[in-house]
UniProtKB/TrEMBL annotation:
Active-site residues (renumbered): 197
InterPro entries on file: Fido (IPR003812), Fido-like_dom_sf (IPR036597), Fido_containing (IPR040198), WH-like_DNA-bd_sf (IPR036388)
The organism's place on the tree of life at top rank: Bacteria
One Pfam family cited in the UniProt record for this chain: Fic
Record keywords, A-Z: ATP-binding, Nucleotide-binding
Matches recorded under Gene3D superfamilies: Fido-like domain (1.10.3290.10), Winged helix-like DNA-binding domain superfamily/Winged helix DNA-binding domain (1.10.10.10)
Name recorded for this polypeptide: Fic family protein
Kinase among keywords: no
PANTHER family named among the record's database cross-references: FIDO DOMAIN-CONTAINING PROTEIN, FIDO DOMAIN-CONTAINING PROTEIN DDB_G0283145
Domain Fido: 108-266
């Protein structure tokens, strides 16, 4: 049976281009929080655009489509799904929202993956949503002449629950060890997940949702503002090619995931590049969140108590006096509560936040 040992990746030698990609993404990650703190209100406009693009692109890869007009109406809840394809599209949106809003509370465990899969297919009414596959599935390729060729045979149904359990355990152990860069680990996990192909349907969509989740959990939140799924859909042919190459010898533990790692790093870097381009466009239009908006955004996302000094440190685009004035306004309007006095002062957001 296929085994998973991700800590061994720490001792592997990587090509220079992969190391360069990792280094560049680390640089972008180092700047992302600064941009988000400086322009929280403007960047929120990118979130809804990214959600629509992600939902549309990930489903399109699987041949599940609707018109752009219908997609917008569905997201704005101005209409209801009128067929199974639109039900599946909205199911993707539901899980995407869950990941955006609650990623820190979703551990990488089989039970949670099953719950996400259940929600993905719930609207369409598929009985196998939230369950591992019950029949053998195959990854097939349709030739130009119409003939179908089996490209890869995933793990058998009876081995699937145990395989997913071991896959998740190996990931958690590698993350806890802090010996393997998460940018290397995430593509390897996703490649193995796709080789297991644990569900009767929805494996591709789940793999892309899990990619977003894993990036979020490791501090890479670019997928909130720029659609990772759209970047994959734009390079779909290469996506399938690198997966096919990375699958060779998988059952024997002899496959090389390097092509898929390289591809996913390129996708992530492209998204970060696009993110900074969008930030530049926003800045070019002269849009700057005022001090109140920035401090309010920080307070809304803060769990537990915080001090004025912490707000000043995390909101470097505004001055100390403007920060304190914004905190006073938030206290006056009841958005946050002030405790203590002088240097012992701290704040807590109210339950209505």
């Amino acid at each position: 049976m296929r085994t998973f040992d991700y800590i061994r990746l720490a001792g592997q030698t990587w090509d220079m281009d992969i190391l360069n990609l990792v280094a560049k993404i680390h640089e972008y990650k180092g700047r992302q929080d600064l941009y988000i703190r400086q322009k929280p209100v403007e960047l929120e406009r990118l979130v809804e655009i990214a959600k629509i693009q992600s939902t549309e692109a990930s489903n399109k890869i699987e041949g599940i489509v609707t018109t752009s007009t219908r997609m917008k109406q569905l997201f704005e809840e101005k209409t209801t799904p009128r067929n199974r394809e639109e039900d599946e599209i909205m199911g993707y949106r539901d899980v995407l929202n869950t990941i955006h809003e609650s990623n820190e509370y979703i551990p990488i465990r089989p039970s949670y993956i099953l719950q996400l899969h259940r929600d993905l297919l719930k609207r369409a009414g598929f009985s196998y949503g939230g369950s591992f596959k019950s029949v053998q599935n195959y990854i097939n390729e349709t030739k130009p002449d119409g003939t179908v060729v089996t490209r890869f045979t995933p793990i058998a149904p009876y081995d699937t629950p145990d395989a997913v359990e071991r896959l998740c355990t190996a990931y958690e152990q590698a993350i806890a060890s802090e010996k393997v860069d998460s940018l290397i680990l995430i593509p390897v996990f996703i490649c193995d997940f796709l080789c297991i192909h644990p569900f009767n349907d929805g494996n591709g969509r789940m793999s892309r949702l899990l990619t977003l989740l894993l990036l979020y959990k490791n501090g890479y939140s670019v997928g909130k503002y720029i659609s990772i799924e759209r970047q994959i859909e734009k390079t779909k042919d290469r996506y399938y090619d690198v997966l096919e190459t990375s699958d060779i010898g998988w059952h024997e533990g002899k496959n090389d995931p390097t092509p898929f790692i390289r591809y996913m790093l390129t996708v992530i870097l492209a998204c970060y590049t696009r993110f900074e381009e969008r930030v530049g466009i926003i800045a070019g239009k002269g849009n700057t969140s005022n001090a109140y908006d920035i401090v309010k955004k920080y307070a809304e996302e803060k769990v537990g108590k915080f001090t004025g000094a912490e707000v000043v440190a995390h909101c470097p685009s505004i001055g100390r006096s403007s920060t304190l004035a914004a905190l006073k306004k938030l206290v006056d309007e009841g958005s946050i509560i002030r405790y203590g006095s002088g240097r012992s002062t701290y704040y807590v957001k109210t339950d209505r936040q």
